[in-house]
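Feature request, filed as a ticket because there's no other form

It would be nice if the structure record came with a short human-readable summary line next to the tokens. Right now we just get the raw output. Example of a typical job, pasted below so the devs can see what we mean:
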Amino acid sequence: MGPRTHSFTEQTAQRGPWLRIDYPVGERNYGQVIIESPRESRHYLPEARQIRVGPPRIELRLEKIVFLANRGEVRFTVAEGETLAGSATKKVTINHVDGRLFQTLWISPSNGFIFKREFGGGRGRPKAVFTYQKVDFDAQLSPSDFEIDDAKAEIVRPEDELQKAFRQGFAAVRLERIPFRLESAHVMTFGRSKALVQTYAGMEGRLSLFQVLDDLDEKRMQRFTKDWGAVVAWKQGGKSFALLGDMPEARLRQLASNRTP
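Raw output as currently delivered:
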């Protein structure tokens, strides 16, 4: 059996560095709105009347590609691309120096617009593909188009969710003094136990810190880690921890050492 896949449709609007994502009628996420700015990401959930605030999605920003290129960590290959939404494109493949796929971009040579984007997953396998089917470059947009129209919605930040989990009995262990920002924190069922999962995002990639209230289920952890480059695990205060990241194990251990307490 192959990996499970699903497709969905988004409607996006972009004005400079600001991006708005809506979901049309019939989509599972209909009614939800995502606003991306250089400073933060806001995700509106109408049923819960919540706005979940976190750091901007680094993987969508060209600054990350420039960052990796300046460090000599990626290589570029340019070829003729397919015609998308009526426009000719150049196909730019970006691989890590070890050959793993980072991203593939189909870019208009006339205006630099990215018509299609493929993201490499763990161990370089393709993880997601986004393609524009129709583009209106003359759309009139204003700053108000990038605001969420629900003044009574509750603002929820990752730090709020993390502190809530600490009050529920999880140890107050987190990563600090690292070039990553806390992106999300949530409690999930993990085998026969509960796990707190903290996700951090930065220019180097994404990290997930698991905290399990008892021993780690190694078989279940293997299913979680198979798409990651490395995992570092340890025991602390009777609880089990694992830090996952698509990066060399030595770097992951260095980041794990910056935990508190």
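Something like this underneath would help us a lot:
The longest helix spans residues 158-167.
The radius of gyration is 20 Å.
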